[in-house]
Amino acid sequence: MILGSSLLGCLLLGQVAPAADLQVPLSPPQIVAKAVALPGEDILPGEPLRLSHVLTVNPNRGEQVKVVQAYWTLSEAVAALNRCRERAAQLALLTVRAGDESALLRAREAAAAAREEALVAVTTAQHAFAEQAGLSVLGPLPLPTDVPHAGPYRTRFEEMFAGRPIPSRSRLIATILPIRFRAIEHRARSVEAAQKAVTAASQRYAAGEVDLDKVLSAMERSDEAQQVLIQAVCQYNREIVDYVALAVDRPLEPETLVSLLIQTTDGDERPMVAVRPSGALGKNVPTLAPPRDGRPRPTGASSNDAWHGPTKAPPRSGDSSAENGPPAAPGGFAPSWPEKNVPTPAPPRLTQPPLVPLNTPLPDKGLPPSGSVPPENGT
After folding, report:
1. pTM of the model as a whole
2. 294 vs 56, higher pLDDT
3. I want to staple 201 with a disulfide (CB 3.0 to 4.6 A). Which of 218, 252, 275, 345 is the partner?
4. pLDDT of residue 293
5. Angle separating helix axes 212-247 and 168-206, nearest 10 degrees
6. One-character DSSP codes across 300-367
7. What percent of the chain has pLDDT over 90?
8. Mean pLDDT, to the nearest integer, of 211-236?
């Protein structure tokens, strides 16, 4: 569940919640950010890792795609653990009427078992991700700190594939991404509706109008709604990375690649001021869209920071969506795709070898020098 602990206590005890706890509905990005937030070190120990750091360790594009896929699988497992822990906390707060003690005990034990099983699933996902990313499992296991994208995504399909063959997979993804986002919006509203149903059932139970099964059933449906939402968002992000791998046919620095997948943030707190990747003042480096007119910036944000608040980047003022190809919902994440057919030398700050395209085999004697163009088709 996404509700605060004080509100949960009020709902489950049949009391009226304080006005401060009754906030406006959360957007899909806000719901997802809360769902995948890392629990405390005492609950889930490990080393928080950003996607850009992991991709630096894996310069091969094909391996990078697999690493990103595994990263979102790990995020999904973290969300499941949070969901099971929240269910157990709800049941611990629930006060029942005489005669319902056995049913409550049964529900609490089932929730405790589900919580432990979710911890097993997270640990398994950590090991699988570490293996895929080439990380050691002898020290702290990896933990995902980047939040999967839960807003619209603009593909610029016609522009990105102009003048070259179009893989059928890329056309399919560009067509279904807007559809998937609309489904995510509906799933988010379903989560909110399910939470309200828990509130109503809890209050009615406290008033003696319904039995305990009504409350437990409402909690179960709420858990299912959250699970389906996170699964949909993670699948959405897996398809985004597939699309980027097909659309960008030249090497990218890890920070630039990540900026085409999600809105990057600085620090672990969510939401935060969005920042440009290092070296973003140069040519062909994605930048983030400005905030909506009239929206305040967070404390400490400079005039050069692009703040997106709790949601993803809104469209630029006056933007009439000049993008061709499959449409995206208004207000979508519009990554500044690299310009096509314009050779750009690697910036001086580059310390890692440049990445290579998916269809280019690695030379026997290492990667080509910075600024050079890798040979195509082995010639």
Report:
1. 0.68
2. 56
3. 218
4. 42
5. 160
6. T--TT-B--TTSPPPPPTT------SS---TT-B---PPPTT---PPPTT--SPPPB-TTSPPPTT-P
7. 56
8. 97
pLDDT digits (tens, 9 = 90+) for 224-255: 999 999 999 999 999 999 999 999 978 889 99
CA–CA dist 1, 3 (Å, integer): 6
**Residue entry with tokens 């709420």:** 222
Q: What is the DSSP letter of 278?
A: T
Tell me the C-alpha distance between 109 and 324, whole Å. Answer: 54
Q: How far is CA 222 from CA 322, 371, 374, in A?
A: 39, 53, 51
3-state SS assignment for residue 258: helix
Q: Is 274 helix (H, G, I), strand (E, B) or coil?
A: strand
Task: For the beta carbon of residue 245, count every other beta carbon within 10 angstroms.
Answer: 20
φ/ψ (deg, to 5) at 133:
-85, -5
Residue 274, pLDDT > 50, answer no
Q: Give dist(CA 29, CA 6) in Å, integer.
A: 23
Q: What's the Cα-to-Cα distance from 241 to each of 51, 180, 228, 260, rounded to whole Å?
A: 12, 14, 20, 8
Measured in degrees and rounded to the nearest 5, phi and psi for residue 149 equal -70, 130
255 and 278 Cβ atoms separated by less than 8 Å: yes
H or E element, residue 143: strand 142-144
